[in-house]
Design goal:
Layout lengths: L2 H37 L4 H16 L2 H16 L7 H26 L3 H9 L4 H31 L11 H12 L3 H28 L4
Helix pairs in contact: 1-2, 1-4, 1-7, 1-8, 2-4, 3-4, 4-6, 5-6, 6-8, 7-8
Length: 215
């Protein structure tokens, strides 16, 4: 098969993979911060609910979670799931990765010295001002390596969308390989994943250097 033809056939799947990756980050990063706040809440009910949520999300396969998110509305409520596949993928990926990001956030926040909170209080900062202006910038700096690892894992995990028949790049490559009886589509897909990972890793490394202002 001509490489240009193969690339054009894989292009749509590549776009779907990038969309899954981007939308998952857009929703899971802020959701993870909210979950982290719940995990550190002084209210035992909120704290335990978020603890169970994190435990379930981290303790069960993402593939299974995608199937529950997709088929759940039909089997539980009888709702139509027509046209729901892509949305189900984004919901499934977002709630899964939010749990991992929540623990990363929590580790970063709890690593901050208590003296910084006390100093900010003496200077007249409110709790929200202290967190946004003083704590959060330092937390971001500390958690970037861990966040980068999760982001790189997310790139590869986008291939799991096939479980509910969302034709991202890996699924498209698999279909072409089966039809043409060649492994070339898999090689091209592998190159794409590697290049995508390399770009993201390089970008995150640049960001880490930018925030390492004391080095």
């Amino acid at each position: 098969m001509d490489l240009s033809v193969l690339l054009s056939q894989l292009a749509e799947g590549m776009l779907i993979s990038v969309e899954i990756f981007t939308l998952t980050l857009v929703f899971s990063l802020p959701l993870g911060l909210l979950v982290a706040f719940g995990r550190m809440s002084k209210n035992p009910i909120i704290r335990n609910i978020t603890k169970i949520y994190i435990s379930v999300m981290r303790g069960t396969p993402l593939m299974l979670q995608l199937m529950v998110v997709y088929f759940g509305p039909y089997y539980l409520f009888g709702w139509s799931i027509r046209g729901y596949r892509f949305l189900a993928v984004i919901i499934g990926f977002s709630i899964n990765y939010a749990a991992y990001f929540a623990e990363i956030y929590r580790g970063g926040i709890e690593s901050m010295e208590v003296g910084q909170y006390e100093a900010a209080k003496i200077l007249g900062y409110s709790k929200s001002q202290t967190f946004i202006k003083i704590i959060l910038p330092q937390v971001i700096k500390r958690i970037l390596p861990a966040v980068t690892n999760e982001i790189i894992t997310l790139i590869k995990d986008t291939s799991l969308a096939f479980v509910i028949s969302v034709s991202e790049m890996f699924t498209t490559a698999q279909a072409i390989a089966a039809a043409q009886k060649t492994t070339t589509p898999f090689i091209v897909a592998g190159v794409f994943y590697y290049v995508f990972n390399y770009i993201v890793a390089t970008t995150m490394e640049w960001v880490e250097k930018k925030v390492s202002y004391y080095r």
